[in-house]
From TrEMBL:
Gene name tied to this protein: citD
Cell compartment(s), UniProt: Cytoplasm
Keyword Phosphoprotein: yes
Organism from which the protein derives: Enterococcus canintestini
Cross-referenced InterPro entries: CitD (IPR006495), Mal_deCO2ase/Cit_lyase_ACP (IPR023439)
Cellular component annotations (GO), alphabetically ordered: cytoplasm
Domain of life: Bacteria
Similarity-based family: Belongs to the CitD family.
Protein name according to UniProt: Citrate lyase acyl carrier protein
Major place of residence: cytoplasm
One MF annotation (Gene Ontology) recorded for this entry: lyase activity
Subunit structure comment from the entry: Oligomer with a subunit composition of (alpha,beta,gamma)6.
Stated role: Covalent carrier of the coenzyme of citrate lyase.
C-alpha cells in the first residue's frame, strides 16, 4: 500500500494512541514513539506497528506515535486507520484484517 499523504488516527487521551503516518521518500519505515510506558512496552509497540504496516504492504512510511497506555488492539486499529487514510483507500477487506488476530 502506498502512503500518499499524511494522516492521523487516535487521540492523546488516557489509554489511547495518536498515530500519524506520512510518506517517506527513503523507502523504509521509520517509527518515532513517545510513550508513557516506553521502558516497559516501547519495543512491543514498535513491533506491533511494524507488523501491521507489513501486513498492509507498506514499505515506506514515517510513523509518529504518541502513546498514553493503549492496548494492542487499539494500537493496531489506530495504525490501520491512519494507513488507510494516508493511502486514500476507501474499500477495506475487514474479513482479512479480522483474521490477523484469530
Amino acid at each position: 500500500m502506498e502512503i500518499k499523504k499524511s494522516a492521523v488516527a487516535g487521540t492523546v487521551e488516557s489509554s489511547d494512541i495518536m498515530v500519524t503516518v506520512a510518506p517517506n521518500q527513503e523507502e523504509k519505515i521509520v517509527i518515532e514513539l513517545d510513550s508513557s510506558v516506553e521502558k516497559q512496552y516501547g519495543q512491543q509497540i514498535r513491533d506491533l506497528i511494524t507488523e501491521t504496516l507489513n501486513r498492509l504492504g507498506v514499505t515506506a512510511a514515517k510513523v509518529t506515535a504518541i502513546d498514553k497506555g493503549a492496548l494492542d488492539c487499539t494500537i493496531q486499529a489506530r495504525t490501520l486507520t491512519a494507513v488507510h487514510r494516508a493511502s486514500e483507500v476507501t474499500a477495506y477487506d475487514w474479513k482479512e484484517i479480522d483474521s490477523w488476530n484469530a
